[in-house]
Write a structure and sequence with these properties.
Layout (H helix, E strand, L loop, with lengths): L3 H23 L12 E6 L8 H8 L2 H4 L3 E6 L3 H9 L5 E5 L1 H7 L5 E6 L6 E6 L16 E4 L5 H12 L8 E4 L3 H9 L5 E4 L3 H8 L2 E7 L2 H8 L6 E6 H6 L1 H18 L4 H7 L2 H4 L3 H11 L13 H12 L1 H4 L12 H4 L4
Parallel strand pairs: 1-2, 1-3, 6-7, 6-8
Antiparallel strand pairs: 3-10, 4-10, 5-8, 5-9
Family: Belongs to the bacterial solute-binding protein SsuA/TauA family.
Keywords: Signal
Organism: Paraburkholderia fungorum
């Protein structure tokens, strides 16, 4: 037989336990720790391309972590695919070409470049060996098939502009999306394209094997001005303006990290830079990778700022063949900002 005092004791314990449970349930959920950074996903339009070298190098040098950032890098074969991911809200930032910011404004989408990596495209129009006899300039591409990374990509924009500048409208040649790197090389070798636009290290690989030769070289300021009439800010970090308005601290930290990397690029040798990169980037030919890297270094800005004549040059290029850009008033001030790189000290 259970004693009355024991029954009362059990009842008291049960009541106390119930009260504790209710109190815990009534308490608000613990807020996220203030010292845990929000993850920022950066989509790169081809992470192994040397035009986007600053992105991977920033991670390898530890500059993201030094700024208290949690950054995840992802890659798509073409800039247009990275743009799509940004607009869908799947990523917070894109390492892609600045011209997307202008093109998107015509569609009512607001994105802004906050760090400019390349003051020139770093792109090269390559002619396949079998077509070299018939294509001596962009005026000769009538009836030919030209390779681009993707339809609507920056290589597509530049290809159309160069052809039109030389009197060949888009209706008189074919455009084939062939991606980059190995898929581009395969398209050249297999005769799927007569010429195409690509970047380093693909350019150096094709030159070494003799599978293609240079037609238009935009890896440096001189070549770019000759082809396009001015500097052409290209590889950059751009974000949606709505994200930027809500995350100025993160944008500032990203800008600091990337500018430190740009300064590293201008104060270290190609050998020192290559040593920081993943081993598979150089492949089996380290000498070829170093050669491609040396050819690419002049394209990068020192401070991440937009070149003064850059936006107008890009607008001129896009207006030449895109009716949507030509027919609208483009507010270039809404497509980029130097605000976040201005405060970075060397």
């Amino acid at each position: 037989m259970t004693r009355p005092s024991t029954r009362l004791s059990r009842a008291a314990h049960a009541t106390a336990a119930t009260l504790v449970t209710l109190c815990l349930l009534a308490q608000p959920a613990s807020p996220a720790r203030a010292d845990v950074p929000e993850k920022i996903v950066v989509m790169v339009g081809g992470i192994s391309k040397l035009i986007y070298l600053p992105v991977q190098l920033t991670e390898r040098l530890g500059y993201f972590k030094a700024e208290g950032l949690d950054v995840e890098l992802q890659s798509q074969p073409a800039g247009i695919d990275a743009e799509t991911e940004l607009l869908a809200g799947s990523v917070q930032a894109v390492a892609g070409f600045y011209d997307h910011a202008i093109d998107l404004q015509t569609r009512g989408k607001e994105v802004k470049a906050i760090v400019v990596f390349g003051q020139v495209p770093g792109e090269v129009m390559m002619v396949a060996r079998n077509a070299a006899g018939s294509i001596k300039s962009m005026a000769d591409v009538k009836g030919k098939t030209l390779g681009v990374t993707g339809l609507g990509s920056s290589t597509n924009f530049l290809t159309q502009y160069l052809a039109k500048l030389n009197g060949v409208p888009a209706s008189q040649y074919n455009v084939l999306p062939v991606g980059a790197d190995h898929s581009f090389i395969a398209a050249i070798r297999q005769g799927h394209i007569d010429a195409g636009m690509t970047t380093e290290p693909t350019v150096s690989q094709l030159l070494k094997t003799g599978d293609a030769q240079v037609l238009v070289d935009m890896r440096n300021v001189e070549g770019t001005r000759a082809a396009l009439g001015g500097t052409y800010p290209a590889s950059s970090l751009y974000v949606q303006s709505t994200w930027l308005d809500k995350h100025p601290a993160e944008a500032t930290a990203l800008a600091r990290a990337f500018v430190k990397t740009l300064q590293y690029l201008h104060t270290h040798s190609a050998e020192e830079i290559a040593a920081q990169m993943p081993k598979d980037y150089a492949g089996n030919d380290k000498a070829l990778y170093l050669s491609a890297l040396k050819a690419s270094l002049p394209m990068f800005t020192v401070d991440g700022k937009m070149p003064a004549d850059g936006p107008e040059t890009v607008l001129k290029v896009l207006s030449a063949f895109k009716p949507s850009v030509k027919s609208r008033h483009i507010d270039l001030s809404r497509t980029f900002t130097n605000q976040f790189v201005n405060g970075v000290k060397p």
